[in-house]
Design brief:
The protein has 102 residues and is an all-alpha fold. It has a single domain, classed as Arc Repressor Mutant, subunit A. 70% of the residues lie in helices and 0% in strands. It has 5 helices and no strands. The chain has helices at 12-30, 32-44, 47-58, 63-70, 74-92. The longest helix is centred in the first third of the chain and has 19 residues, at 12-30. The radius of gyration is 13 Å and the shape is globular.
Length: 102
Amino acid sequence: MGPLPRGLHQGVESVAKVRVTRTLLHVAVQDQPQRQQINDAISKLSDDHREVILLREVQGLDYKEIAAVVGSSLGTVMSRLHYARKKLQTYLKPESPDHPQT
């Protein structure tokens, strides 16, 4: 994982959430059932949240590059990524009503 932008909370919890998101997306590429769960969860995100999470986690763009692509400020990109990751974690929790039963 590259360096976090200045101003981003670098607490253990925040770093862990980023790692969880990246790990889930990496596993999804390798495991068909989990790939479908990840795709379903991503499809539930708002357009703005889906766009930034895909640009960051799939395309590998840094925060400044994402801001340029979507035409938003760096702070807006950081906020959207934060809330997109929180939503994905909620959707992918086994006890979540939105989580597919396997």
